[in-house]
């Protein structure tokens, strides 16, 4: 199964990806996690991406399309994949089409901007795995520690409120057009399109996704 998770920053894409990977036995491809790994490793790509990400802007289509192309070609993607944070511009969606990469389901998680700003201040992440928590809504078993490894959780560099607002503006301008794009594709029978309310509890959103994809 090939799935795209679409939604604003903080809508819960990474959170829902955690259960979907397991349930459907497919890898999560998070371009944000890949870029953060490059930053941590200090690669030239990481150095370039860091400035852009810290400013809440998008990394160039050329770089991102190259990264995803390479990742999708790996063996574990043969059975399908879950795209989280890609595509997020029309050229990225077109590049998928031009490369003959079709998708089965597009799942849009809908959350209003003000709710997102509130959420982001409580987000904590495990840098090694990309696992996502929230101090109130999705707390780890031990405060400040990852459930699986016990390692420290951190606050993402781009979760400061002014940067979150910038990312939301970029989302509305550059990523929102993909809603029409994939709804039109659904009308043409190319993929299924599902929108769901992302303000419900994490487990309820998961249950709805499982129903929609059943
Ligand atoms: P990326 O890492 O993709 O960030 P994003 O899209 O902005 O999304 P987030 O990871 O912030 O949110 P999410 O939807 O995964 O929410 P989460 O599950 O964590 O990208 C970062 C940057 O990299 C971009 O700004 C850009 O610079 C660059 N980049 C990445 N991909 C790119 C691309 N394709 N092209 C160009 N540039 C790219 O949840 C958020 C919080 O809410 C958590 O604390 C969580 O616990 C909590 N939460 C989740 N669900 C619920 C719920 N139902 N109720 C209450 N709380 C909840
Ligand atoms: Zn994420």
From TrEMBL:
One cellular component term from this protein's GO annotations in UniProt: cytoplasm
Metabolic or biological pathway, per its Swiss-Prot or TrEMBL entry: Purine metabolism; AMP biosynthesis via salvage pathway; AMP from ADP: step 1/1
Give residue ranges for domain Adenylate kinase active site lid. Answer: 123-158
| Keyword rRNA processing recorded | no
InterPro entries in the cross-refs: Adenyl_kin_sub, Adenylat/UMP-CMP_kin, Adenylat_kinase_CS, Adenylate_kinase_lid-dom, P-loop_NTPase
Q: Which molecular function GO terms apply here?
A: AMP kinase activity; ATP binding
- What is the protein name for this chain? Adenylate kinase
Please state the Enzyme Commission number of this protein: 2.7.4.3
What does UniProt say about this protein's domains?
A: Consists of three domains, a large central CORE domain and two small peripheral domains, NMPbind and LID, which undergo movements during catalysis. The LID domain closes over the site of phosphoryl transfer upon ATP binding. Assembling and dissambling the active center during each catalytic cycle provides an effective means to prevent ATP hydrolysis.
The protein's organism comes out as Ferrimonas sediminum
- Stretches the record annotates as NMP: 30-59
Subcellular location, in the record's words?
Cytoplasm
């Amino acid at each position: 199964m090939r799935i795209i998770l679409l939604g604003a920053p903080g809508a819960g894409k990474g959170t829902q990806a955690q259960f979907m990977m397991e349930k459907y036995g497919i890898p999560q491809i998070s371009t944000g996690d890949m870029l953060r790994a490059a930053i941590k490793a200090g690669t030239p790509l990481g150095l370039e991406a860091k400035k852009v990400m810290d400013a809440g802007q998008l990394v160039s289509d050329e770089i991102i399309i190259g990264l995803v192309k390479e990742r999708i070609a790996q063996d574990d993607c043969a059975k399908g994949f879950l795209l989280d944070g890609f595509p997020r511009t029309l050229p990225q969606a077109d590049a998928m089409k031009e490369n003959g990469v079709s998708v089965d389901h597009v799942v849009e998680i809908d959350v209003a901007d003000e709710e997102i700003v509130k959420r982001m201040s409580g987000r904590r992440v495990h840098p090694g795995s990309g696992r996502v928590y929230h101090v109130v809504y999705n707390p780890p078993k031990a405060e400040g520690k990852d459930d699986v490894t016990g390692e420290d959780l951190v606050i993402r560099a781009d979760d400061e409120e002014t940067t979150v607002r910038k990312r939301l503006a970029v989302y509305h301008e550059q990523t929102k057009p993909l809603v029409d794009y994939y709804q039109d594709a659904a009308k043409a029978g190319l993929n299924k399109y599902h929108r769901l309310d992302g303000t419900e509890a994490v487990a309820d959103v998961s249950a709805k996704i499982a129903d929609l994809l059943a």
